[in-house]
Amino acid sequence: MPAIEDSGVVVLGWWVSMFTTRVRIALAEKGISYEYLEEDIPNKSPLLLKHNPIYKKVPVLIHKGKPICESLIIVQYIHETWKEGYPLLPSDPYLKSQAAFWADYIDKHIYQVVKLTWDSKGEEMQKRVEEFLGYLKVLERELGEKPYFNGESFGFVDMALICYYSHIIAFGKIGNFSVEKDTPKLFAWATQCLKRESVSKTLADPNKIYELLIEIRKKNGLED
C-alpha cells in the first residue's frame, strides 16, 4: 500500500497559519483536489519532520511524493505545474518581478508586526500599531484605485496579503484600530477578495484567531 504522501497532492498545514491559507487559496483557484492534513504544531508529526527537516514548519505541499516548502515558493510551483486554469502569476517578466517584490514586502513587514502582538502592550503596542498601519498604507498606495493589486484580476500579491486578513482583524481588536476606518481602500479590496469562494471558504474565523491571541497574551502575562 503506498504511503499517504505518495497519493497525489497533500498539504500539511495548521488552521492558524496564514501561510497554509495562502497555499490552500492557490490550490482552490486552480481547482486542484488535495488531501489536507492538520498538524498539531506543539507535537509535529513524523510526516512534517520528514518532509521539511530544515525549518520543520507548515505549510508543506507534497506532490507525487516530493515536498515543496515555503508558501510563496509553493504558490509559484502550483502556477508552473498546473498551467491550465486560472493564472496565479503574470506572464510578463517585469510584472512577475513586481508581484514577487510586493509579496516579499508583505512577508517581511506585515508578518513581523503581527507576530509582535503576542508580546507587547501599552506604549510598545501603540508603536507597533503605528508601524503596522504605515506598512498597510504603503500597500494601499500600491493598490491605488485598482480592484486587485494585479489590476482587474486576483493574483499573486492578493494571495500573499489576503491570507493575513483574519489576523489583521484580530490584531485590530487588540491594538484598537480598524482596517475599515484606517485603511479604507484595503478594506474595500479585502471585501472584494472575500467574494471569491477560494478566499471566503479558506480564511480562518477572525474571532477564533483573536481568542487564540488573547490566550497567548495571557500566558505571556499581557492580559488579565
UniProtKB/TrEMBL annotation:
Top-level division of the source organism's lineage: Eukaryota
UniProt record, GO biological process: glutathione metabolic process
GO molecular function per UniProt: glutathione transferase activity
Record GO cellular component, one term: cytoplasm
Chemical reaction(s) catalysed: RX + glutathione = an S-substituted glutathione + a halide anion + H(+)
Keywords: Transferase
Record-listed E.C. numbers: 2.5.1.18
InterPro entries, per the entry: Glutathione-S-Trfase_C-like, Glutathione-S-Trfase_C_sf, Glutathione_S-Trfase, Glutathione_S-Trfase_N, GST_C, GST_C_Tau, Omega/Tau-like, Thioredoxin-like_sf
Ranges of residues in domain GST C-terminal: 92-222
A Pfam family matched in the record: GST_C
Start and end residues of each GST N-terminal domain: 7-86
Family (UniProt): Belongs to the GST superfamily.
Name of the protein described by the UniProt record: glutathione transferase
